[in-house]
Specification:
The structure holds two protein chains of two kinds.
Chain A lengths: L2 E6 L3 H12 L5 E4 L15 E3 L8 E2 H14 L3 E3 L3 E5 L4 E6 L3 E12 L3 E3 L15 E3 H11 L6 E5 L3 H12 L3 E7 L8 H8 L6 E3 L1 E7 L6 E6 L12 E4 L2 E4 L3 E3 L2 H6 L23 E3 L10 H19 L10 E5 L3 E5 L2 E2 L7 E8 L3 E10 L2 E11 L5 E6 L10 E7 L1
Parallel strand pairs in A: 1-2, 1-8, 2-5, 8-19, 10-17, 11-12, 11-17, 12-13, 20-27
Antiparallel strand pairs in A: 3-4, 6-7, 7-8, 9-18, 14-15, 15-16, 20-22, 21-23, 23-26, 24-25, 24-27
Helix pairs in contact in A: 1-2, 1-7, 3-4, 4-5
Chain B lengths: L3 E4 L8 E7 L2 E5 L4 H12 L2 E2 L2 E7 L5 E6 L3 E2 L3 H9 L2 E3 L7 E3 L9 E3 L10
Parallel strand pairs in B: 5-8
Antiparallel strand pairs in B: 1-2, 2-3, 4-7, 5-6, 6-10, 9-10
Classes of the chains: A alpha/beta, B alpha+beta.
Protein backbone atom coordinates (compact mmCIF):
# COMPACT_ATOMS: atom_id res chain seq x y z
CA UNK A 1 0.00 0.00 0.00
CA UNK A 2 1.43 3.41 -0.86
CA UNK A 3 1.90 5.84 2.00
CA UNK A 4 0.82 9.45 1.82
CA UNK A 5 3.85 10.55 3.83
CA UNK A 6 7.10 8.77 4.64
CA UNK A 7 9.39 10.46 7.17
CA UNK A 8 13.05 9.41 7.08
CA UNK A 9 14.43 9.64 10.60
CA UNK A 10 12.65 9.25 13.95
CA UNK A 11 14.51 11.93 15.90
CA UNK A 12 12.95 15.20 17.09
CA UNK A 13 12.63 16.52 13.51
CA UNK A 14 10.92 13.43 12.11
CA UNK A 15 8.58 13.03 15.09
CA UNK A 16 7.43 16.66 14.98
CA UNK A 17 6.93 16.57 11.20
CA UNK A 18 4.87 13.36 11.36
CA UNK A 19 2.73 14.67 14.21
CA UNK A 20 2.03 17.94 12.47
CA UNK A 21 1.07 16.18 9.22
CA UNK A 22 -1.33 14.01 11.22
CA UNK A 23 -2.81 17.14 12.82
CA UNK A 24 -3.44 18.44 9.28
CA UNK A 25 -5.41 15.29 8.47
CA UNK A 26 -2.88 12.94 6.87
CA UNK A 27 -3.78 9.30 7.64
CA UNK A 28 -1.13 7.05 6.11
CA UNK A 29 2.17 8.14 7.62
CA UNK A 30 5.27 6.01 8.15
CA UNK A 31 8.39 6.95 10.11
CA UNK A 32 11.56 5.00 9.24
CA UNK A 33 14.17 4.92 12.04
CA UNK A 34 17.43 3.01 11.91
CA UNK A 35 18.07 2.82 15.66
CA UNK A 36 16.41 0.46 18.16
CA UNK A 37 14.09 3.18 19.39
CA UNK A 38 12.62 6.55 18.39
CA UNK A 39 14.00 9.82 19.73
CA UNK A 40 17.27 10.17 17.86
CA UNK A 41 20.28 11.77 19.47
CA UNK A 42 18.11 13.20 22.29
CA UNK A 43 18.19 9.74 23.88
CA UNK A 44 21.88 10.09 24.66
CA UNK A 45 21.62 13.74 25.77
CA UNK A 46 20.67 12.86 29.34
CA UNK A 47 21.45 16.38 30.66
CA UNK A 48 18.71 18.96 31.09
CA UNK A 49 18.03 22.26 29.35
CA UNK A 50 15.70 21.05 26.61
CA UNK A 51 12.16 22.29 26.06
CA UNK A 52 12.31 25.78 27.59
CA UNK A 53 10.61 27.23 24.48
CA UNK A 54 8.41 24.30 23.51
CA UNK A 55 7.15 23.21 26.92
CA UNK A 56 8.15 26.18 29.13
CA UNK A 57 10.03 23.82 31.42
CA UNK A 58 13.46 22.29 31.58
CA UNK A 59 13.60 18.68 30.43
CA UNK A 60 16.35 16.15 29.81
CA UNK A 61 16.83 14.87 26.25
CA UNK A 62 15.06 11.55 26.85
CA UNK A 63 12.16 13.38 28.51
CA UNK A 64 11.79 15.75 25.56
CA UNK A 65 11.93 12.82 23.13
CA UNK A 66 9.59 10.81 25.35
CA UNK A 67 6.84 13.41 25.10
CA UNK A 68 6.91 13.27 21.30
CA UNK A 69 7.17 9.47 21.22
CA UNK A 70 4.08 9.24 23.44
CA UNK A 71 2.16 11.57 21.11
CA UNK A 72 3.21 9.54 18.06
CA UNK A 73 2.07 6.33 19.73
CA UNK A 74 -1.19 7.90 20.89
CA UNK A 75 -1.89 9.08 17.34
CA UNK A 76 -1.22 5.57 16.09
CA UNK A 77 1.39 6.80 13.62
CA UNK A 78 3.18 3.80 12.13
CA UNK A 79 6.93 3.56 12.56
CA UNK A 80 9.61 1.00 11.82
CA UNK A 81 12.73 0.55 13.94
CA UNK A 82 16.01 -0.89 12.73
CA UNK A 83 15.00 0.36 9.30
CA UNK A 84 17.86 1.89 7.34
CA UNK A 85 16.91 3.81 4.22
CA UNK A 86 19.35 3.01 1.43
CA UNK A 87 17.86 5.02 -1.40
CA UNK A 88 15.17 7.50 -2.35
CA UNK A 89 14.43 8.60 -5.90
CA UNK A 90 12.58 11.52 -7.45
CA UNK A 91 9.54 9.29 -8.12
CA UNK A 92 9.34 9.16 -4.32
CA UNK A 93 10.18 5.49 -4.07
CA UNK A 94 11.97 4.69 -0.84
CA UNK A 95 14.06 1.57 -0.31
CA UNK A 96 15.03 0.47 3.19
CA UNK A 97 16.53 -2.60 4.82
CA UNK A 98 15.65 -3.99 8.21
CA UNK A 99 16.26 -7.29 10.01
CA UNK A 100 12.51 -7.99 10.19
CA UNK A 101 11.40 -6.87 6.72
CA UNK A 102 14.48 -7.46 4.55
CA UNK A 103 14.78 -5.16 1.55
CA UNK A 104 11.59 -3.20 0.93
CA UNK A 105 10.61 -0.51 -1.58
CA UNK A 106 7.73 1.80 -0.72
CA UNK A 107 5.86 4.45 -2.67
CA UNK A 108 5.06 7.77 -0.99
CA UNK A 109 3.13 10.85 -2.13
CA UNK A 110 5.39 13.11 -0.05
CA UNK A 111 8.65 12.59 1.82
CA UNK A 112 10.20 14.43 4.77
CA UNK A 113 13.97 14.14 5.06
CA UNK A 114 14.86 14.25 8.78
CA UNK A 115 18.14 12.37 9.02
CA UNK A 116 19.87 14.84 11.30
CA UNK A 117 23.61 15.40 11.34
CA UNK A 118 26.93 13.73 12.02
CA UNK A 119 29.98 14.77 13.95
CA UNK A 120 33.15 15.82 12.20
CA UNK A 121 35.72 13.09 12.87
CA UNK A 122 39.50 13.24 13.29
CA UNK A 123 39.95 12.83 9.54
CA UNK A 124 38.18 16.13 8.94
CA UNK A 125 40.81 17.96 11.02
CA UNK A 126 44.04 16.37 9.79
CA UNK A 127 45.58 16.12 13.27
CA UNK A 128 49.13 14.82 13.01
CA UNK A 129 50.34 11.92 15.11
CA UNK A 130 49.83 8.20 15.49
CA UNK A 131 46.51 6.38 15.11
CA UNK A 132 45.92 4.62 18.42
CA UNK A 133 42.56 3.70 19.94
CA UNK A 134 41.11 6.13 22.44
CA UNK A 135 40.11 8.88 20.03
CA UNK A 136 36.37 9.46 19.96
CA UNK A 137 33.99 12.09 18.76
CA UNK A 138 32.26 13.52 21.84
CA UNK A 139 28.87 12.23 20.71
CA UNK A 140 30.15 8.70 20.22
CA UNK A 141 31.62 8.76 23.71
CA UNK A 142 28.29 10.14 24.95
CA UNK A 143 26.43 7.20 23.46
CA UNK A 144 28.90 4.69 24.94
CA UNK A 145 28.69 6.21 28.41
CA UNK A 146 25.02 7.15 28.60
CA UNK A 147 23.35 4.31 26.69
CA UNK A 148 25.71 1.38 26.31
CA UNK A 149 27.18 1.66 29.80
CA UNK A 150 30.79 1.66 28.67
CA UNK A 151 33.31 4.13 30.06
CA UNK A 152 35.60 5.32 27.29
CA UNK A 153 38.65 6.42 29.30
CA UNK A 154 40.16 7.59 32.58
CA UNK A 155 42.25 10.62 31.66
CA UNK A 156 40.77 12.80 28.99
CA UNK A 157 41.70 15.74 26.79
CA UNK A 158 38.84 17.39 24.90
CA UNK A 159 39.29 19.37 21.70
CA UNK A 160 36.45 21.78 20.99
CA UNK A 161 34.36 23.75 23.45
CA UNK A 162 30.97 23.43 21.78
CA UNK A 163 28.17 22.36 24.07
CA UNK A 164 28.70 18.63 23.46
CA UNK A 165 32.37 18.94 24.45
CA UNK A 166 31.50 20.87 27.61
CA UNK A 167 28.69 18.49 28.57
CA UNK A 168 31.01 15.51 28.08
CA UNK A 169 33.70 17.14 30.24
CA UNK A 170 31.23 17.16 33.14
CA UNK A 171 29.84 13.75 32.33
CA UNK A 172 33.26 12.06 32.25
CA UNK A 173 34.22 13.83 35.49
CA UNK A 174 31.07 12.72 37.30
CA UNK A 175 31.77 9.14 36.22
CA UNK A 176 35.22 9.29 37.75
CA UNK A 177 37.49 10.29 34.87
CA UNK A 178 39.97 13.16 35.06
CA UNK A 179 39.49 15.74 32.34
CA UNK A 180 42.87 17.41 31.95
CA UNK A 181 41.93 20.28 29.66
CA UNK A 182 39.44 21.51 27.07
CA UNK A 183 41.25 23.12 24.12
CA UNK A 184 39.43 25.48 21.76
CA UNK A 185 40.86 26.66 18.43
CA UNK A 186 38.85 29.89 18.40
CA UNK A 187 39.46 32.79 20.79
CA UNK A 188 35.94 32.22 22.19
CA UNK A 189 33.94 29.17 23.23
CA UNK A 190 31.25 27.85 20.93
CA UNK A 191 29.21 26.70 23.91
CA UNK A 192 26.72 28.39 26.20
CA UNK A 193 28.22 30.45 29.01
CA UNK A 194 26.20 28.51 31.55
CA UNK A 195 27.82 25.30 30.35
CA UNK A 196 31.27 26.78 30.86
CA UNK A 197 30.23 27.53 34.45
CA UNK A 198 28.45 24.31 35.37
CA UNK A 199 30.52 21.87 33.28
CA UNK A 200 34.04 23.27 33.57
CA UNK A 201 34.34 25.81 36.41
CA UNK A 202 32.36 23.60 38.80
CA UNK A 203 35.04 20.93 38.40
CA UNK A 204 38.09 23.18 37.93
CA UNK A 205 38.64 21.97 34.37
CA UNK A 206 40.83 24.45 32.49
CA UNK A 207 39.60 25.90 29.18
CA UNK A 208 42.41 26.93 26.85
CA UNK A 209 41.15 29.25 24.12
CA UNK A 210 43.16 29.72 20.88
CA UNK A 211 44.70 26.28 21.35
CA UNK A 212 44.63 23.18 19.20
CA UNK A 213 45.92 19.63 19.23
CA UNK A 214 49.25 19.37 17.41
CA UNK A 215 50.12 15.77 18.16
CA UNK A 216 48.60 12.54 19.38
CA UNK A 217 50.95 10.08 21.11
CA UNK A 218 50.70 6.30 21.59
CA UNK A 219 50.63 3.25 19.38
CA UNK A 220 47.95 0.88 20.70
CA UNK A 221 46.17 3.32 22.99
CA UNK A 222 46.50 7.09 23.32
CA UNK A 223 49.25 7.86 25.84
CA UNK A 224 49.26 11.63 25.50
CA UNK A 225 48.09 14.65 23.56
CA UNK A 226 50.10 17.77 22.76
CA UNK A 227 48.31 21.07 22.39
CA UNK A 228 49.74 24.43 21.31
CA UNK A 229 48.60 28.03 21.21
CA UNK A 230 47.57 29.30 17.78
CA UNK A 231 48.13 32.71 16.19
CA UNK A 232 45.56 34.95 14.52
CA UNK A 233 45.65 32.68 11.45
CA UNK A 234 44.98 29.65 13.63
CA UNK A 235 48.48 28.29 13.03
CA UNK A 236 50.25 26.66 16.01
CA UNK A 237 52.90 28.87 17.63
CA UNK A 238 56.22 27.03 18.01
CA UNK A 239 57.37 26.78 21.59
CA UNK A 240 53.93 26.93 23.19
CA UNK A 241 53.36 23.18 23.19
CA UNK A 242 52.09 21.45 26.33
CA UNK A 243 51.82 17.66 26.48
CA UNK A 244 49.17 16.05 28.65
CA UNK A 245 49.43 12.42 29.67
CA UNK A 246 46.04 10.87 28.92
CA UNK A 247 44.37 7.78 27.47
CA UNK A 248 41.51 9.47 25.64
CA UNK A 249 40.94 12.36 23.23
CA UNK A 250 37.38 13.55 22.66
CA UNK A 251 36.62 15.66 19.60
CA UNK A 252 33.79 18.17 19.70
CA UNK A 253 34.62 20.01 16.53
CA UNK A 254 31.39 20.57 14.70
CA UNK A 255 28.46 18.84 13.07
CA UNK A 256 27.64 18.29 9.42
CA UNK A 257 24.16 17.50 8.04
CA UNK A 258 23.87 13.85 6.97
CA UNK A 259 22.89 14.07 3.34
CA UNK A 260 24.00 11.00 1.39
CA UNK A 261 20.35 10.31 0.61
CA UNK A 262 19.54 13.92 -0.28
CA UNK A 263 22.56 14.05 -2.60
CA UNK A 264 21.86 10.79 -4.43
CA UNK A 265 18.24 11.90 -4.74
CA UNK A 266 19.48 14.95 -6.60
CA UNK A 267 17.95 17.75 -4.54
CA UNK A 268 19.81 21.03 -4.83
CA UNK A 269 22.32 21.36 -2.00
CA UNK A 270 23.73 24.42 -0.23
CA UNK A 271 27.51 24.56 -0.15
CA UNK A 272 27.44 26.64 3.02
CA UNK A 273 25.10 24.59 5.24
CA UNK A 274 25.85 21.23 3.51
CA UNK A 275 22.10 20.66 3.62
CA UNK A 276 19.38 20.84 0.97
CA UNK A 277 18.26 24.22 -0.33
CA UNK A 278 14.73 24.79 1.03
CA UNK A 279 11.90 27.25 0.53
CA UNK A 280 9.54 28.88 3.05
CA UNK A 281 7.59 25.59 3.34
CA UNK A 282 10.79 23.57 3.97
CA UNK A 283 10.36 22.04 0.52
CA UNK A 284 13.53 21.01 -1.34
CA UNK A 285 14.12 21.61 -5.04
CA UNK A 286 12.05 18.48 -5.78
CA UNK A 287 8.29 18.95 -5.38
CA UNK A 288 6.82 16.93 -2.53
CA UNK A 289 10.17 16.30 -0.85
CA UNK A 290 10.63 18.30 2.32
CA UNK A 291 13.51 18.55 4.79
CA UNK A 292 13.80 19.79 8.36
CA UNK A 293 15.99 19.88 11.43
CA UNK A 294 19.73 19.30 11.48
CA UNK A 295 19.72 17.70 8.03
CA UNK A 296 19.04 21.22 6.66
CA UNK A 297 21.23 23.27 8.99
CA UNK A 298 22.66 22.52 12.41
CA UNK A 299 20.51 24.00 15.18
CA UNK A 300 21.53 24.99 18.73
CA UNK A 301 18.22 24.17 20.38
CA UNK A 302 15.94 21.21 19.78
CA UNK A 303 12.97 23.50 20.40
CA UNK A 304 13.76 25.26 17.12
CA UNK A 305 14.16 21.92 15.34
CA UNK A 306 10.65 21.04 16.49
CA UNK A 307 9.22 24.31 15.23
CA UNK A 308 10.90 24.06 11.84
CA UNK A 309 9.83 20.43 11.49
CA UNK A 310 6.22 21.25 12.32
CA UNK A 311 6.34 23.67 9.41
CA UNK A 312 7.75 20.92 7.15
CA UNK A 313 5.08 18.44 8.30
CA UNK A 314 2.25 20.91 7.78
CA UNK A 315 3.61 21.81 4.33
CA UNK A 316 3.88 18.13 3.36
CA UNK A 317 0.24 17.71 4.41
CA UNK A 318 -0.82 20.67 2.27
CA UNK A 319 1.15 19.23 -0.66
CA UNK A 320 -0.58 15.86 -0.29
CA UNK A 321 -3.95 17.63 -0.10
CA UNK A 322 -2.99 19.71 -3.15
CA UNK A 323 -3.30 22.92 -1.13
CA UNK A 324 0.35 23.96 -1.35
CA UNK A 325 0.94 26.68 -3.91
CA UNK A 326 3.74 25.88 -6.35
CA UNK A 327 4.30 29.12 -8.20
CA UNK A 328 7.32 30.15 -10.21
CA UNK A 329 7.45 33.57 -8.53
CA UNK A 330 10.11 33.07 -5.89
CA UNK A 331 12.01 35.61 -3.86
CA UNK A 332 15.56 34.49 -3.11
CA UNK A 333 17.41 35.19 0.12
CA UNK A 334 21.10 35.97 0.18
CA UNK A 335 23.62 36.30 3.03
CA UNK A 336 25.76 39.45 2.82
CA UNK A 337 28.51 40.91 5.00
CA UNK A 338 28.79 39.20 8.37
CA UNK A 339 26.13 36.58 7.62
CA UNK A 340 27.13 33.02 6.67
CA UNK A 341 23.80 31.66 5.54
CA UNK A 342 20.06 32.36 5.48
CA UNK A 343 17.29 29.72 5.66
CA UNK A 344 14.91 29.50 3.80
CA UNK A 345 16.79 30.02 0.55
CA UNK A 346 13.65 30.98 -1.42
CA UNK A 347 10.24 32.37 -0.45
CA UNK A 348 6.94 31.86 -2.22
CA UNK A 349 4.73 34.56 -0.69
CA UNK A 350 1.58 32.59 -1.59
CA UNK A 351 2.43 30.06 1.16
CA UNK A 352 3.27 32.61 3.84
CA UNK A 353 0.87 34.01 6.45
CA UNK A 354 1.40 37.35 8.19
CA UNK A 355 5.16 37.15 8.33
CA UNK A 356 8.11 35.07 7.23
CA UNK A 357 10.83 33.86 9.60
CA UNK A 358 14.41 33.93 8.37
CA UNK A 359 17.08 31.99 10.26
CA UNK A 360 20.77 32.76 9.96
CA UNK A 361 24.23 32.38 11.39
CA UNK A 362 26.84 35.11 11.50
CA UNK A 363 30.49 34.70 10.50
CA UNK A 364 32.12 36.19 13.58
CA UNK A 365 31.51 37.58 17.06
CA UNK A 366 29.92 41.06 16.87
CA UNK A 367 28.96 43.48 19.65
CA UNK A 368 26.37 46.27 19.51
CA UNK A 369 25.38 45.89 15.88
CA UNK A 370 22.21 45.64 13.81
CA UNK A 371 20.97 42.62 11.93
CA UNK A 372 19.40 44.04 8.77
CA UNK A 373 17.22 42.57 6.01
CA UNK A 374 16.96 44.56 2.78
CA UNK A 375 15.10 44.26 -0.49
CA UNK A 376 15.74 46.45 -3.53
CA UNK A 377 17.89 48.81 -1.47
CA UNK A 378 15.20 49.28 1.18
CA UNK A 379 15.43 48.12 4.80
CA UNK A 380 12.53 45.72 5.40
CA UNK A 381 13.53 44.71 8.90
CA UNK A 382 16.29 45.56 11.35
CA UNK A 383 16.96 44.46 14.88
CA UNK A 384 19.59 45.83 17.26
CA UNK A 385 21.82 43.10 18.70
CA UNK A 386 24.07 43.45 21.74
CA UNK A 387 25.87 40.24 20.97
CA UNK A 388 26.09 37.99 17.91
CA UNK A 389 28.18 34.82 17.68
CA UNK A 390 28.58 32.06 15.08
CA UNK A 391 27.50 29.55 17.70
CA UNK A 392 24.09 31.15 18.11
CA UNK A 393 21.43 30.92 15.42
CA UNK A 394 19.62 34.21 14.84
CA UNK A 395 16.11 34.90 13.60
CA UNK A 396 14.49 37.80 11.76
CA UNK A 397 10.71 37.98 11.47
CA UNK A 398 9.73 39.98 8.40
CA UNK A 399 6.14 41.21 8.15
CA UNK A 400 4.74 40.20 4.78
CA UNK A 401 3.58 43.76 4.11
CA UNK A 402 7.22 44.89 4.04
CA UNK A 403 8.11 42.51 1.20
CA UNK A 404 7.56 43.60 -2.42
CA UNK A 405 5.94 40.57 -4.15
CA UNK A 406 7.56 41.26 -7.50
CA UNK A 407 10.73 42.58 -5.88
CA UNK A 408 14.29 41.32 -5.96
CA UNK A 409 16.19 39.14 -3.54
CA UNK A 410 16.17 39.71 0.20
CA UNK A 411 19.67 40.26 1.58
CA UNK A 412 20.62 39.90 5.23
CA UNK A 413 23.68 41.54 6.76
CA UNK A 414 25.33 42.76 9.94
CA UNK A 415 25.63 46.56 10.13
CA UNK A 416 27.14 48.95 12.63
CA UNK A 417 24.51 50.29 15.01
CA UNK B 1 32.27 43.53 50.74
CA UNK B 2 33.47 43.75 47.17
CA UNK B 3 30.99 42.89 44.43
CA UNK B 4 31.35 39.41 43.01
CA UNK B 5 30.86 38.59 39.33
CA UNK B 6 28.60 35.65 38.65
CA UNK B 7 27.12 34.02 35.56
CA UNK B 8 23.56 32.85 36.00
CA UNK B 9 23.07 29.19 35.07
CA UNK B 10 19.30 29.02 35.59
CA UNK B 11 18.54 29.13 31.87
CA UNK B 12 20.55 29.13 28.61
CA UNK B 13 20.66 32.96 28.39
CA UNK B 14 23.46 33.09 30.98
CA UNK B 15 23.14 36.63 32.41
CA UNK B 16 26.35 38.22 33.69
CA UNK B 17 25.43 39.35 37.19
CA UNK B 18 27.15 41.27 39.92
CA UNK B 19 26.41 40.43 43.55
CA UNK B 20 27.22 42.61 46.53
CA UNK B 21 26.75 41.43 50.07
CA UNK B 22 25.64 44.09 52.58
CA UNK B 23 25.20 42.63 56.05
CA UNK B 24 22.50 40.00 55.61
CA UNK B 25 21.37 41.35 52.25
CA UNK B 26 22.46 40.56 48.73
CA UNK B 27 22.27 43.25 46.08
CA UNK B 28 22.11 41.64 42.64
CA UNK B 29 22.48 43.56 39.39
CA UNK B 30 22.59 42.39 35.78
CA UNK B 31 20.00 39.67 36.26
CA UNK B 32 17.36 39.34 33.53
CA UNK B 33 14.66 37.89 35.78
CA UNK B 34 13.89 37.23 39.46
CA UNK B 35 15.28 33.71 39.21
CA UNK B 36 18.73 35.27 38.86
CA UNK B 37 18.47 36.88 42.30
CA UNK B 38 17.49 33.59 43.90
CA UNK B 39 20.32 31.82 42.11
CA UNK B 40 22.89 34.42 43.16
CA UNK B 41 21.89 34.19 46.84
CA UNK B 42 22.01 30.44 46.75
CA UNK B 43 25.29 30.31 44.85
CA UNK B 44 26.97 32.51 47.48
CA UNK B 45 25.51 30.77 50.51
CA UNK B 46 24.76 27.15 49.61
CA UNK B 47 25.57 26.32 45.97
CA UNK B 48 23.61 23.37 44.64
CA UNK B 49 23.13 21.53 41.37
CA UNK B 50 20.75 19.14 39.65
CA UNK B 51 22.49 15.91 38.70
CA UNK B 52 21.67 14.04 35.51
CA UNK B 53 23.31 10.64 35.17
CA UNK B 54 22.48 7.00 34.47
CA UNK B 55 21.69 3.82 36.39
CA UNK B 56 22.46 0.26 35.31
CA UNK B 57 19.34 -1.39 33.87
CA UNK B 58 18.77 -5.06 33.14
CA UNK B 59 16.46 -6.63 30.54
CA UNK B 60 16.26 -3.54 28.37
CA UNK B 61 17.33 -2.52 24.86
CA UNK B 62 20.15 -0.49 26.37
CA UNK B 63 22.31 -0.98 29.45
CA UNK B 64 21.74 2.38 31.07
CA UNK B 65 18.63 4.19 32.27
CA UNK B 66 18.92 7.99 32.32
CA UNK B 67 17.97 9.51 35.68
CA UNK B 68 17.97 12.91 37.38
CA UNK B 69 17.63 14.35 40.84
CA UNK B 70 14.16 15.86 41.25
CA UNK B 71 15.70 18.80 43.06
CA UNK B 72 19.14 20.24 43.63
CA UNK B 73 21.79 18.70 45.83
CA UNK B 74 24.60 20.58 47.58
CA UNK B 75 27.45 21.07 45.13
CA UNK B 76 30.00 19.50 47.46
CA UNK B 77 27.87 16.34 47.77
CA UNK B 78 27.67 15.67 44.02
CA UNK B 79 30.28 12.91 44.01
CA UNK B 80 28.71 11.26 47.08
CA UNK B 81 25.38 11.19 45.27
CA UNK B 82 27.09 9.80 42.14
CA UNK B 83 28.64 6.86 43.99
CA UNK B 84 25.28 6.13 45.64
CA UNK B 85 23.58 6.11 42.22
CA UNK B 86 26.33 3.97 40.72
CA UNK B 87 25.86 1.35 43.42
CA UNK B 88 22.34 0.41 42.35
CA UNK B 89 20.76 -1.30 39.38
CA UNK B 90 17.17 -1.64 38.20
CA UNK B 91 15.20 -4.00 35.99
CA UNK B 92 13.02 -3.01 33.05
CA UNK B 93 10.24 -2.08 32.64
CA UNK B 94 10.68 1.41 34.06
CA UNK B 95 8.47 4.41 33.38
CA UNK B 96 9.52 8.00 32.96
CA UNK B 97 9.08 9.69 36.34
CA UNK B 98 9.44 6.50 38.44
CA UNK B 99 11.36 7.06 41.66
CA UNK B 100 14.52 4.95 41.47
CA UNK B 101 16.04 5.97 44.80
CA UNK B 102 14.08 7.82 47.48
CA UNK B 103 15.65 10.61 49.55
CA UNK B 104 19.19 9.97 48.40
CA UNK B 105 21.68 10.24 51.31
CA UNK B 106 18.96 11.98 53.33
CA UNK B 107 19.35 15.09 51.18
CA UNK B 108 15.61 15.38 50.62
CA UNK B 109 15.68 14.71 46.88
CA UNK B 110 14.85 11.59 44.92
CA UNK B 111 16.52 9.99 41.92
CA UNK B 112 13.86 9.69 39.21
CA UNK B 113 13.85 7.98 35.85
CA UNK B 114 13.87 10.33 32.86
CA UNK B 115 12.94 7.66 30.31
CA UNK B 116 10.46 4.84 29.84
CA UNK B 117 12.27 1.61 29.00
CA UNK B 118 10.32 -1.53 28.19
CA UNK B 119 11.34 -5.07 29.03
CA UNK B 120 13.33 -7.07 26.51
CA UNK B 121 13.92 -10.74 27.34
CA UNK B 122 16.75 -11.57 24.96
CA UNK B 123 19.93 -9.62 25.53
Amino acid sequence: MPYELVVIGGGPAGLAAALEARKEGIKHILILERDKELGGILQQCIHNGFGLHQFKEELTGPEYAGRFIEMVQKEGIEYKLGAMVVSVNDKKEITYVSPSDGLVTLQATAIVLAMGCRERPRGALSIPGTRPSGIFTAGTAQRYVNMEGKMVGKRVVILGSGDIGLIMARRMTLEGAKVEVVAELMPYSGGLTRNIVQCLEDFNIPLKLSHTVTEIHGTDRVTGVTIAKVDANRKPIHGTEITYECDTLLLSVGLVPENEISESLGVEMSRVTSGPVVNESMQTSIEGIFACGNVVHVHDLVDFVTKESQRAGASAARYIQKRLTLSEELIHTEPKSGVRYVIPNTIDLANVGESVELFMRVTDVFRNVKLVAMQDGKVIREVAKKHLAPGEMEKLVIPIKNIAPAGGEITVMVKEA
Amino acid sequence: MKAQELICIVCPIGCHMSVERKAAEFIVTGNGCPRGIAYAKKELTAPSRTITTTVKILHSNFRRLPVKTNGEVPKERMFDVMSEINSISVEAPVNMGDIILKDVLGLGVDIVSSKSMHRVEVM
